[in-house]
Amino acid sequence: MSSDTDAPIARPRVVSAAYWLWLASAVLLIVVCMIALTLPADQIRASFTTGGATDEQIDSFLTVFRGLGVIFGVVGLAVGLMSGPVRGGDRRFRRALVALSGAIALLLTFAALVFPFVLLVITVALVVAAVLVYRPSAREWFVREQ
Length: 146
What we know:
It is a single chain. By secondary structure, this protein is mainly alpha-helical. It is 79% helix and 0% strand. Helix 1 (13-38) runs antiparallel to helix 3 (55-88) and helix 1 runs antiparallel to helix 5 (116-132). 27% of the residues are buried.
C-alpha cells in the first residue's frame, strides 16, 4: 500500500501555459535576431538617407540595431533552454528565468521604439509567463521533492 504522499502530482495548467508562452517568446526573439542580422544595410541606409540622417548616424543605428539583434537571439536561446527545467518543476531555473524575463522585458520595452508591435507582444508574453509560474496553483509543483 502506498500513501497519498507518494502519488505523483499533476503539472498545473499555469505552469504549462507559462512554458508555452516562454517557448513562443524564445522563437519570436530568435526571429527578431535573424531579421536584424539579415536585413540589408543598403536598404536601411537608403531609408535613413531620405530622412536627412548623416552617415555617422546611420552607422550608429546599424551597430545598435544589429547588436540588439544578437542580444535578442542569445536571450531567445537562453529562454528556450531554461523553460524546459521550469516545466519540470526546478525552482532554481524558475527564479533565474523569471529574472531573465524581467530584465529582457525592460530592454524590449525600450527597444519597442524601433520594432513597436513585435517586441511589445514578446514583452507581454514574458511578463505573463513570469507571473503564471508564481501563481498559488503552481506553488505545489515547485515545492515537491526533486
